[in-house]
Amino acid sequence: MSGLSLRDELEEREKRDLAPYAVLARSSRGRAFGEPEHPYRTAFQRDRERVVASTAFRRLEHKTQVFVATESDYYRTRLTHTIEVSQIARTVARALRLNEDLAEAISLAHDLGHTPFGHAGQEALHDLMAGHGGFEHNLQSLRIVDLLERRYAKFRGLNLSYEVREGIWKRRSESQDDAARLGFDRKLAATLEAQVADAADSLAYNHHDVDDGLKSGMISEQDLGSVELWQRALGAADERIKAAGDKADANPRVRRREAIRFLVDLQVTDLVATTRRRLEEDRIASFDDVRHAKRPLVGLSAELDARKHELEEFLFKRVYRHYRVMRMAEKAKRFLGALFEEYVKHPHELPEEYQEWVAREGVHRGVADYIAGMTDRYAQREYEKLFHPFEQT
Ligand code: MG
């Protein structure tokens, strides 16, 4: 193997060990700005590390997922959610012999474009940007990795590989024109690695929103009585507790965690088995077959999918619409709206870097970029500085 770099060797290994329908780092469509390959990391390994080193990634720690982080140290934040998504995606990718590095890079980047205060922030910016090009968090994630991160002398953004960018995009733009502007082809189906990252996202928030919902006291175990998936999980937890020689009610916290673990395991196992079956049924034998597949290939069985919907409906009604969540959401909308209006009216109140950005991108888009990048507490402090008469500026 003399003369070969470690990266060459890693790429050889991918070719040998991965499934024929996996994305190989060597076959990547490359980066917008040509760069020499790294001597000992594949393109996707390098992308993953660029994402982790970004400013937007570090800010995820202080952004709300569903429950405002300052109310308890226990709840998931965008960062811990992202880590859970990436670990599920890696497990599934490995089980299907897909490119784990690619699935991980997409997962770690998938929520970079989220605003402060969870979906309330996204809704607020979406409304405020109506008539100015709109706002959508997946497209915002792309803006971050393509434009907003400033850490390289030669280019803006992180200059990520095509396949990672496409995975972040998630086919969310409205038209083929939009896709073309971003460099994508809407007619091609998503890579399996991108589909895995997407599936891992919804699987992760389902179980952790049940967990955090119970912990917060917004829902109780009795409330979950009508949700079959949760009853199944509790049954499995009780069996495990009995097998360990304990009574079911001896430690409710352990019981809840056993149930949550069962939920994750059940869904991941089903996801892997169902995807394998679809790959076989549709005779997917190459990467090209994936790109031209007629239906999504990564997914849950119809039975489990229906149960999962039932759980999601419960979460929607009982958790996401809970008055404590709604109160926070309305408050967040109000003060993000106030920040937005103020900056749009008086852009000279923006930090200098953003005054330049507004001059380049237009005032609405520039202000949306600034607000979307804020953490919860940064947004709160900005609000105080602008509107509370005796706050220091
Ligand atoms: Mg997510």
Helix content: 55-70%
User: Structural class from helices and strands?
Assistant: mainly alpha
Bound molecules: magnesium ion
What is the name of the CATH architecture?
Orthogonal Bundle
Please mark out the parts with pLDDT under 50 across 5 or more consecutive residues, or reply none. none
What's the N-to-C terminus distance?
A: 61 Å
Number of DSSP helical runs: 18
What does this structure look like?
With 393 residues, this protein is mainly alpha-helical. The chain has one domain (6-214, 262-387): Hypothetical protein af1432. Helices cover 62% and strands 0% of the residues. The chain is built from 18 helices and no strands. It has helices at 6-17, 43-52, 55-59, 78-95, 100-109, 118-128, 137-148, 162-169, 176-182, 192-216, 228-243, 252-281, 287-291, 302-320, 323-345, 352-361, 363-373, 376-387. Helix 4 (78-95) packs across helix 10, helix 6 (118-128) runs parallel beside helix 15 (323-345) and helix 10 crosses helix 14 (302-320). The longest helix has 30 residues, at 252-281. The mean pLDDT is 92. The structure holds magnesium ion. Magnesium ion (MG) is lined by residues 81, 85, 110-111, 201.
Could you outline the blueprint of secondary structure elements for this entry?
Layout: H1 6-17, H2 43-52, H3 55-59, H4 78-95, H5 100-109, H6 118-128, H7 137-148, H8 162-169, H9 176-182, H10 192-216, H11 228-243, H12 252-281, H13 287-291, H14 302-320, H15 323-345, H16 352-361, H17 363-373, H18 376-387
Helix pairs in contact: 2-5, 4-5, 4-10, 5-8, 5-10, 6-15, 8-10, 10-12, 10-14, 11-12, 15-17, 15-18, 16-17
The protein binds magnesium ion.
The site of magnesium ion has 5 residues, from helix 4.
